[in-house]
Amino acid sequence: MSIRKALLLYLSATTFYGTSFPTANSAKFDIPTGTSPTPLFGATPFSQKMLLLEEMGSQPLVECRTCTSTLPQPNNIRSSPKGAALDAFLKEPIHPFPMEQANIVLPNPWQDLIETHTGPLNFTAIEGRPPGEFYAHQRWFEFFPLVWVQTAQSGARRNEGLRNDQQRHRYAVGEFAPGGLYHNTTGRAGFEGSTKGIKVRFHPRMPVQHPKSVWTFDGTFPPKLIMARYGEPILFRHYNALPIDETTNNGFGRHTISTHEHNGHNPAESDGFAHAYFYPGQFFDYRWPMILAGTDTINTDKSDPRAGTPDGNGGIMRIRGDYRETMSTHWFHDHMQDFTSQNVYKGNAAMMNYYSALDRGNEGLEDGVNLRLPSGTALDWGNRDYDVNVIVADKAWDQNGQLFFSIFQTDGFLGDRMTVNWLYKPYFDVRSRRYRFRILNASVARWFKIALVTSSGQRVPFHMIANDGNVMEHAVRFPNAILPSQGIAERYDIVVDFSQFKPGDKLYFVNVLEHKDGKGPNKQIPLDQVLSGKYKGDPAVGKFLEFRVQAYNGTDLSMNPADFEPGKKKMIPLPGFTAEELNNATQRTFEFGRANGTDDKPWTIKTDGGQGYNMDPRRVSASPDKGGVEIWRLVNGGNGWSHPIHVHFEEGQILKRGGLSPPEWEKWARKDVYRIGDMPDTLGSVEFAVRVREFVGTYMEHCHNTTHEDSAMLLRWDSQNPGQVIAIPTPMPDWDGVDYIETNTTDVPTFKVGDLDAKANRVGLKAVGNENNGNSENNELEEEDNMNNGKGRSKGSNNDVRISNGGNLHASQNSNSVGKHDDGGKGHNGRGRNRGGHKGGND
User: Fold this and answer.
1) What span, in angstroms and rounded, lies between the C-alpha atoms of 267 and 650?
2) What is the spatial distance between Cα 152 and Cα 159, in angstroms, rounded to a whole number?
3) What pTM value is reported for the model?
4) 675 burial class (0-12, 13-18, 19+ CB within 10 angstroms)?
5) pLDDT per position as a tens digit, 150-188
């Protein structure tokens, strides 16, 4: 979008909403960025109950041969569909049935209305996924989806209870049953066992958000959650129900979207490439296989019970792959090129919990494999009684209470109001026992350092048990009760023991990391200054979530994280790398800075000492071979900037931070977001090792300060088959379908070989992780005393598979286990232009 057009859009929005023109809040702190302080409309901190995330329940994938309805049309090009019509449609069975290649047989159901905005179109398609073999689902029949979830990105509207019966607890068991802490969803009368009636607003005293201001999954609050099991591939159908007119956005946000599941081991066509976006009226079918990395080479006979998933009946369904690659806490969000920051901030973000034999979500099941993390016991898997997703983000709103974002900046947008699960400074009731909190930083540019204190200011130590999406090898205790710096998109799972407190006690999460602007964090503020009120700087520093302790009459069956500290028992061991793997690894160097940037796109990435480049979706900057090991070095370009760098698809193990051994909370962890910057726990460089396995295609690496990403600190890297010499082409979407153009492999001449100079200067590396890392065919189990809970192996052979929930889990992942459908699983190019092609990079 041109600056002139952006200015017109912004002036239009300010005229409609009466927003004052942006001015700096003060010379010292530009918070909120580009506008005056956010009004509170009489709301006070900790006067509303925190919303728990609402599950978008999965359903068995069954073909409906009689379903013919399509996404309901809006009344005009400036609105989303009516809420009742949208709910009715989303309740229907999934149709048309998903296909291996994109469905371009059927037209966009909104075509007639779209043409009043665009003029005549010769071709449209119901699915926005790029057509043909290039973006066909890899290994479709081998990992055929067993369940499906569908949602629509829509303007804000009242929740009418669409998802009530999709909650696994059904508001009937555990703390969600009548009389439980969470049976009432809001803490107000009329919300017993239901989300019906919840409006999209930050606080009951604040205005309801306009459909132009906030765009969420389903268009509703609470924020959404997918509960996923390993071994149960998911078809996620994402409809775009946003306004056809791109200016209907309250001054920010783009109505074209691309969904990234952060950080799934997913094939590239379902990763959410920034230039594989889709338009209003369309859907995009993302297929997430839910497999362990190493599926093709490790534990291929499914002999290891730790590589498994809950079967619904107290047992384990075994799967292939490396159990040490088990993941837990994910999220998914928009990844539209140039508009990620605006769209995510506007509401295109949700969470996803992975469940496995190790992280089952049932603290009472003792089988020698299950880690028994705090959760509950009423359900076989996925109890959320004491396992809580916490989305932390800073926001700002205008004088009319509507969500505000400044598009006239490239440093990073900062809000002045702290929100948790989209609510302004809520409270949360907890029992006097252990809890697991899955904390996500979902901000645009703000980093956090979160402390836990009592109402009197006493520090409350806790344990970190997972970093990003990965349960760690050892739990790390924080006696000072302050977490490390948490960059944007990082997830920290912690266990807090409230049993030491009595009913009526109150505790607080406190942010102690100061920003002055979007460049990055400035400094940590002493906790006593924050709690005493002496500190008067960044308005987002301070208490932001209150815990209210309630009596607990049950028995806490969850693991004690102190038993898993370094030198004691292991949770999930690191996969590790042999010395041979590391010394033979391809090395790459990426420097994040402003070299060769422009005024509107100042952020660039240098690859292997070359030129700094902005994002170009056609340019391949790196192409690891599938099956290879690589070492990537990320370097900060300096000048006081900080960057949380996200690498899609595979988890890495940090070797060095700032040339030093990583701290404990990274030493025992795998990561997908790597902070570089000037903070004492961050430093100017990170070096990590990674394996690239199972899938090929186009992925991304970028700064997750999403303002930096959008302008334009983002690059494309391709996983390729060994010996592959031609990169897959680049999709170019438009209203009338997706064309492909040739991919550029000449700008970065090292894209195949990496940084040869750095590799030549590399001193002989030693093995990291497990002494016998077993990254080969059918690795043996470790000794029983290394088992997670010291209980020994589960009984039964790899054939002992119990199917539950109507046969949702298949014992076989054989490519012949699912037959073809009438359409043969193929997409068709029978209408309009032939947009498909041979995908040389796919298996």
Assistant:
1) 11
2) 13
3) 0.90
4) buried
5) 999 999 999 999 999 999 999 999 999 999 999 999 999
